[in-house]
Amino acid sequence: MYCTPPETRKARKPRRCMNCGEAIEVGTEYRRWMCVDDGKAHTNVMHPECLEDLAEAYGSGYWEYTLYSGERPNARSQATDAALSRQVACTDGLGVAVPPAPTFGEKT
Ligand SMILES: [Zn+2]
Hints:
alpha+beta, binds zinc ion, first zn-finger domain of poly(adp-ribose) polymerase-1
């Protein structure tokens, strides 16, 4: 097996991290490298933090990983927070549980 050194790219279209399976959003950086195995070339894409995490766990030699079975380190809670705030923002448009606007400034 031969692998190229990972290079940093900026996503111009949505991709999926091959470690954690989460989206790599457009405009964010990701790591991309190629492996040639049995004469077949495979392209690998991962979040920078996912690749770092695996590289730390496995060392600098060649290693294999199981597709989409990894955990995304660090950024996970941030992403969850963002998803939650998006959900909260969505309920506003439904008109549910939104108190009526107080009527200040009415002259009596
Ligand atoms: Zn990832």
